[in-house]
Each structure stands twice: as C-alpha cells, then as structure tokens.
Amino acid sequence: MKKMLIIAGILILVVMTIFLVRQLSNKQKDGIILLSGNVEVTEVNVGFKMPGRIIKLYVEEGQRVNKGDKLAEIDSEELKYQVIQQRAYLNEAIARLQELKTGSRPQEIEQAEANVRYAEAEMIKAKRDYERAEVLYKNDAISAQQMDSAKKVYVTAQSLYKKAVETLSLVKEGPRKEEIVAATNRVKQAEASLRVYEERLKDTVIYSPISGVIMRKNLELGETVSPGVPVYTIGDLDKPWIKVYVKEDKLGLVKLGQKAEITTDSFPGKIYRGTITYISSEAEFTPKNVQTQEERVKLVFGVKVSVENINDELKPAMPADVRIILQ
C-alpha cells in the first residue's frame, strides 16, 4: 500500500512538472498564448553636430522632457563674432549693389562737369602759352628748352582734358550691366556665408527631438565633445513595447492587431492593455536570456506587443508576462 502511494506521488510530481514546463513555454490554452519578455522603449541619442566645450547642461537623468526643450550648450563666443562679421560683409555688399543700381548722383555729375570745365580752361591757357612760346622762339627770344617745356605743358593739359571728358561720359552712363551682375553675385555669396555661420551658431545648442525621459547623461559640464557623440540618451516611455518570442508551430495563431494583456511583478494584479504591432518574417533561435539551454536551440519569431504606459509605470528592461488573446 505504501509503495502504491509513493508511485502515485511520483506520478503526480511528473504531471505537475510537465504542467509547469508547459506553463513557462509558449502554449495555447482557452484561446490564450502565454509569453514572457521585457519592456523596451525607443531610445534616441542626442549630440552636437560640431565640436566644442560644454558650458551648460539643462537636464539630469530621470527628468522628463518635452519635444523642443533645450538640453545643452557648447561655447559659441567665437561663432557669434563670426556671424557679426559676416552680417557686416553682407550689408556692405548690399550697399554697393544699391549704389550701382541707383546710378550716379546729381552731385557726382556736377563734379565731373566742373572737372571738364577746369581741364578745358587749363588746356586753353596751355595752348596760348605754347603759341606765344613758338613766336618768341622764332624771334630767338627764348631757348629751345623753354619752347619744349611749354609744349609739354600743353600736351599734358590736352590729355587731362580728354580724361575728364571720358569720366563725365562714364558718370552720366552709370555702371555697366556686368558690374551690377557681379555685385549681385557678391550679395548672394555674402548671404550664403551668413546663413552657414548662423546655422553653426544654432548647432551650439541641442534640443530634445522627442518627448520622453532622460535615460542617460553621457557627458559632464566642461568636457569637450566631438561631433555625433551622445550627450543624452532619451527614452520614449509613452510608447513602450514588450518583445516576446513565439514558437514556429504557434505563429499561425498570432495576427497583427490582436489584443494582449500585460502584467508585471512590480504592479501585481494590474493589467496593461496591449496590441500586436509587429511580427518578424524571419525565424531565429531563442535568445539566450529567454529560455533554458534546451529551448535556445528552437526556432522562434519575434513579436512586438505595444502597450499603454499609464503614469510611466513600465520601465525599460522590466520583466513582463504577456497574454495574447486569440481571435
């Protein structure tokens, strides 16, 4: 009789062991598949586009941020001066272009006309002096050197008069089209250069690209950061998911859009609502951190169960149990 009881007890233990193993693995029971996984969130690394020394850090780990919140700054004094310099270059180029488009001012034309009258008077005077010198030279009243000197003065006066007349003509005609085109191009070049420096100045400040929680602060105040190096890592706790793995023979029961219930050890008895939003199309071996050595050699398919995270209670890497409700 005692032997029968021992045998019965062993059989009960075997049955219970089989039951527990099945409970821990994927199974279908009463229209439900039970799975286990961990909470995962989208993580975004945020860094600067340019190198520099960090002068301000506005947030700390665990702090919630909204999209567009200022996170950090690097030293920007040199870039500020460069922006001022480029803006001055642009204003100078614009003024020059406007001057060319406006043409000559009345005062400039009057000045050019006055120069012509003066040069003409000087030329007439030099001509008279030269003609008088010719008469005196013929009468042996002056030397040949004096005669040559008078001639040179007259020739120079003629040249100055001709130049004054040409200058007056140019002033009246105004700038050439080629000059205006060249000045326009210089304005465009100055505008582009200013935009480049203004964008660099903006890049000395980083803002949060998403709303979420600061998961990690990777650098400290005063450190020199290189381009692309993450200063902060932000987690989107509003849209977490549970990554679970479904065995090959159960994959046909799982569909996109199916509802699921999620529970955690941290909040016993509380049920979070979820939806299947992704089913992998490629089989893989069970991850080593999910099942026993025997289970790890079995092929599974990754499934993502998106879940509502009420009050940010679900945290990254938190273990969770998933009940997929079959339809």
Automatic annotation (TrEMBL):
Annotated keywords: Coiled coil
Native source species: hot springs metagenome
Leader peptide range in chain numbering: none
Subcellular compartments: Cell envelope
Domain named CusB-like beta-barrel: residues: 241-324
Gene Ontology cellular component terms for the protein in this record: cell envelope
Cross-referenced InterPro entries: Beta-barrel_RND_2 (IPR058792), HH_YbhG-like (IPR059052), UPF0194_transport (IPR050465)
Protein name: ABC transporter substrate-binding protein
